[in-house]
Design a protein that fits this description.
By secondary structure, this protein is of the alpha+beta class. The chain has helices at residues 2-24, 73-89, 91-94, and strands spanning 28-36, 39-47, 50-59, 98-109, 114-120. The chain has a 5-stranded mixed β-sheet, sandwiched between helices. Strand 2 and strand 3 form a beta hairpin.
Length: 124
């Protein structure tokens, strides 16, 4: 139970760091933690004529691999379904826009409070 709480806390921290990073890169955040029947979309952001749907993965160590390695094929399928659900409910505002399914990898060091953030575009 404590591990689950800790993981959620680290995950939310990573999402905040990712959002700050994306803003510095010129993205405008339009939604966070958007829930669908298929799961949650961590961040939805726009830049130029593109709407990016972003899965954020955060790790405090590389014991289990890099954060982006946690996006298994079944997770990617759920993510794609969640994005399709969002698109079908928001067709008009998305008309004519490019769609990108992205991931942001956050390697967070709680001892130094530093993070290495990597934005992976078009992961599907």
């Amino acid at each position: 139970m404590l591990d689950n709480f800790h993981n959620k806390k680290i995950g939310r921290l990573g999402e905040k760091m990712a959002a700050k990073y994306l803003k510095r890169q010129g993205y405008k955040i339009i939604a966070k933690n958007y829930n669908t029947h298929y799961g949650e979309i961590d961040i939805i952001a726009t830049k130029n004529n593109c709407v990016a749907f972003i899965e954020v993965k955060t790790r405090t160590s590389l014991r289990y691999g890099y954060p982006e390695q946690a996006i298994h094929p079944w997770k990617l399928q759920h993510f794609q379904n969640a994005v399709q659900s969002y698109i079908s409910q928001n067709e008009k505002p998305l008309a004519g826009k490019e769609i990108s399914l992205d991931a942001v990898s956050v390697e967070y060091d709680p001892n130094t409070n530093d993070a290495k953030i990597t934005h992976l575009e078009n992961i599907s």
